[in-house]
Amino acid sequence: MTSTIRHVPVAIVGGGQAGLSVSYHLKQRGLDHLVFEAHTAAHTWATQRWDTFCLVTPNWQCDLPGHPYDGPDPDGFMKKDEIVAYLKAFVAKVNPPIREGVAVTRVARGADGLFAVQTSEGDYTADEIVVASGGYHTPIIPRMAEKLPGSIAQIHSNQYRKPAQLPEGAVLVVGSGQSGAQIAEDLHLAGRAVHLAVGDAPRCARFYRGRDVVTWLADMGYYEKTVEDHPLRDGVRDNTNHYVTGRDGGRDIDLRRFATEGMALYGVLEDYADGALCFRDNLKRSLDQADRTYNGINAAIDTYIAESGIAAPAQTPYSPVWEPGELVTSLPLAGSGITSIVWCIGFTPDFRWLDASVFNGAGQPKHKRGVTGEDGISFIGLPWLNTWGSGRFGAVGRDAEYIVQVIQKRLGAEGFALSRMV
């Protein structure tokens, strides 16, 4: 028996906030579409975040299309359960035509010019493909992990939930980006002995001269700066996010202060050999560079305040509260007390299901504002898709609106057609 292939003008792959934002704007224009989500809508926030996770940007920046934050604490930072509730309310508002539990396994353009979309529930065709699955797919765990003793519990940051899930003993956190720094703090506050392998992530202040730094930067137009306007151009997409936290009302994360409180800091973890963890000698350089970024952002705010004639309380630059002593580049695992490792070194993209020439040598999509060089394929929800704000709840809606405008122009009147069987 020949299976029936359903046609939809627009197929959206991914049902997170990015895909749902595209669905919102398509519905506003009467454009027929389907959202394919391998799990449930916005599931990542509920299933791949630790228990004390909260936003690092203030709630007022949460402005999904038709769904601005309207809670009682616009200057606060939503916790995990509040984020999930906010997104569930967004799903209810959008009421998207979504196929939950349906994975897209392959997309390729057919001889008829349409995209053949293979899914776990059957085949579809589409005129347009919107890739809304993000860029964080495969957790990075280095090959050195295979050499570690089986007695060491190892998890990735997306599996971490709370300190109690790890065996008793010291914990090595590898990586000091947003996840690594915040997980290290979570363990530290719980009284666990923490060893932290520090990378090159920058940091910023939570509050400076009487206001949240995010608020200052928003007023200064930083979140509206486009990739084309940035000195690094496309290279800015490779930048690591600054570490800071919204926990307990928001505060700085100062790794030096953690060191004064007993946290052991090292450079980048490079290997495990002869029973010892081997670290790069970059700790002081990394801490100094992070502080230069911290003070540099604050100096830019100082300039803005002065040029704008704004009255704001004075504040002095940050001065280190701790300096590394004797350099430790080798730590024998036996005797260290370490019983578990949390790998916080990111993810790699996995777009193998998309058979199209729209990727660079690193497997990242090539695009301008999400629109690729191949008609009919767009991306949404990637860091710096267009601006610094693209990876946040506040700007993804604008990115989605732009992509939908492009799609509508390409589809023309056919975009308003109902789904049809072919």
UniProtKB/TrEMBL annotation:
InterPro entries given in the database record: Auxin_biosynth/cation_transpt, CHP04046_FMN-dependent, FAD/NAD-bd_sf
Transmembrane segments: none
Keyword Disulfide bond: no
Presence of the UniProt keyword Oxidoreductase in the record: yes
GO MF terms, alphabetically ordered: flavin adenine dinucleotide binding; monooxygenase activity
Signal peptide start and end residues: none
SUPFAM superfamilies tied to this protein: FAD/NAD(P)-binding domain (SSF51905)
UniProt KW keywords: Oxidoreductase
Protein known as: Putative flavoprotein involved in K+ transport
Species for this entry: Methylobacterium phyllostachyos
